[in-house]
Amino acid sequence: WNKEGRREGINVLADDGSSVGDLAGQAPIVIGTGFVATSSEGVPTTLKRSGSDYSATIFAKLVGGGRVTMWKNTDGVYTADPRRVPEAFSIGSLKYDEAMELAYFGAQVLHPSAMVPCIDSNIPVYVRNIFNPSFKGTVIQGRCSSLGETMEGKVVNWRSNTGIVPIKGITSVDGVSLVTLEGASVIGGAEVAERFMGAMADASIDVLMVTQASSESSITVVVPENQGLSALNALKSTFELELSRSNVNSISVSEESMAIVAIVGEGMAMQSGVSATFMSSLAKANVNIRVIAQGSSERQVAVVVSNQDASRALRAAHMAFTLSQTMVSVAVLGGTGKIGSALIRQIDSQRQNLKDKLNFGVCVNVISSSSKMLLGNSDTKCLVCTGDPNEQLEGPEAVDFDIDALTKQLEADVNPHRIIVDCTNSDAVAEYYDKWMSLGINIISPGNLAGAGPLDRYHALQRAQRENSVEWQYESSVGSALPILSTLRDLVQTGDDVQLIRGSLSGVMAFVFNNMSEETTFSEAVRLAIAQDFAENDVRDDLSGLDARRKIVVLARELGLDVSLEDVEMESLVPDDIMEKEYTGSIQENYDAILEDLKSLDEPMMKRWKEAQSEGKQLRYKFKINVASGKCRCRLEAVDNSDSLFRLRENENLVAFETSRYTTSPLIVKGAAAGPDLSASGMFSDLLRLGRAFVGSQS
């Protein structure tokens, strides 16, 4: 090379040291050492991370190379770090400026300055996989439009360009600190900024981001975590006099480890809604933003978040720009019960359909029973795909059920879309709803203990839902798969005045009184209902009206009535001695014992049935909610053929809404509503409702 950095020739030496001659122009293969260099003072140094890439592009510039190929162990430059965003994929092409932005904000594949030598000569840079040489990888070439050129265009919303994504990638820098100077308005913004940045330069602090609130002359910079204290001391020294006179309110460094998350892409320029989509995705993932910065070129938007939230933020943003399918992490509590098992089967059977038609996937990564639980992790396939839940919970990977350990696992899940499906109908589990919501976790509860539980807890859960922007879905807690609650909400939210709600909410009661006959006694009809899997684990909950009572409370509370269980007037078909009796066997043994005790009711119940039949009526367990008086009741009644309950079929529920709009005839919701498959279908509908909301927030 000559002094101007140009090639003059290559002199090859023989083994004995004699010159073979100048082989310039014969295109020999030249092997050079990358990564190492010397400083301007002549001190040996390195080019830091991916310095060999920088060396390669420098050589390409000097020799006038036609292309540079960087052989890596990945299929090019990815849309995000695949270790943190499993759905990330290789980017086909990038501009030099985009590649430099990605590298600056932490993309591990590239050196931040590696593109610079190739820009003037427009030398294309290829990033290929040495272990997959047939894959084309990523090509980097060309410049982004200048700010002036960009400003000449028309502003359009990025979603109007169907199929075109405005960003190329999402990246992060972990382990940073925020250094903030507050309340220096007395000094003046210009002087504060000059002295602030001067102090950073004098202390050799690497400033990654800067934001300034001009109204108070407050400045925050983002620096590497290991330089945080040095930056703090430098500023305290620079503003020592102002601090002593209280002209500067405070200078501080964040104690919590932070991370920069940035979206990069030329397509963001003059495209409205990009920043809104980014920020909204983080909000929905319950990620708090500490600092925001956007370059004037509109090629990148960067935020600072807690280090522990970085992976969740990356995945949320990646999904928001439809760079990947929306994935939903689901924990099924009570997954080995009849309803939980039915739900898991339905999810598994519809997995491909959800992906193809709704663009979201469901990954069941936590399954529990009352005594055991199985916790997945980022390296584990979805548990629903790897075998029967009952078998898994009997395997060596299952551990004793610990709701606190389960909560920690859910909190650590980096997926922004997390859902707990609580099939336990347990008060102890319902006590954790508030905490789960505070962690940004959505809840589906088919059981009605939470919705009809203590009024103070119910109101606390409603507040937690609003404050944390999460969903608590419990449609299936009233009528299984029937849209009873959603219908009621639509009526109320559209301004209709609901005056009376009546009907029947017990599938077991409907089955029993539809199957009683001269030959079929009350206890025998109950046995048939149990055989159909229509009954609760404790059939007394059905026959006493307790299950229906809870559903009535849920409905009344949806209307804004502060109703508790004791406020509902209820007729129990089960005598006190049977209700208070303790049955200590298995579920089936308890069923048999209760059925034996229920035989004492066969004669009185048959008498009531015959009386109704003689009058041309049918026995129905009927409820009524009078909104004006706030009175609620449920009891066994004989109804004639003018009542909509007269033709109620086996295992059906019916709810009639009498409102100011539906005056001539009520709005009726009616259908089958008993059995684990129908209950699971209702829960699945709740899950789909949430999944569509997640996808909709990104479209």
Give a verbal description of the structure.
With 699 residues, the chain is an alpha/beta fold. The protein contains 26 helices and 30 strands. The strands form seven sheets. Strands 10, 11, 12, 13, 14, 16 and 17 form a seven-stranded antiparallel beta sheet that branches. The chain has a seven-stranded mixed beta sheet with strand order 21-20-19-18-22-23-24, with helices on both faces. Strand 19 (360-368) and strand 20 (372-375) form a beta hairpin. Helix 20 packs antiparallel against helix 24 (587-598). The relative contact order is 0.08.
Q: What is this structure's SSE topology?
A:
Elements: E1 11-13, E2 19-22, E3 36-38, E4 44-46, H1 51-63, E5 68-72, E6 93-94, H2 96-104, H3 116-119, E7 125-129, E8 138-140, H4 147-151, E9 156-157, E10 169-182, H5 189-202, E11 209-213, E12 218-224, H6 228-238, H7 240-244, E13 250-253, E14 258-264, E15 271-272, H8 274-284, E16 289-294, E17 300-306, H9 310-320, E18 326-333, H10 338-349, H11 351-358, E19 360-368, E20 372-375, H12 389-392, E21 399-400, H13 403-412, E22 418-422, H14 427-430, H15 433-438, E23 442-444, H16 455-467, E24 472-473, H17 476-479, H18 484-493, E25 498-504, H19 507-515, H20 522-531, H21 540-543, H22 546-558, E26 568-570, H23 576-580, H24 587-598, H25 602-614, E27 618-626, E28 631-639, E29 652-659, E30 667-672, H26 676-696
Parallel strand pairs: 5-7, 6-8, 9-15, 18-19, 18-22, 22-23, 23-24, 26-28
Antiparallel strand pairs: 1-2, 3-4, 7-8, 10-12, 10-13, 10-14, 11-12, 14-17, 16-17, 19-20, 20-21, 25-27, 25-29, 27-28, 29-30
Helix pairs in contact: 5-6, 8-9, 10-26, 19-20, 20-24
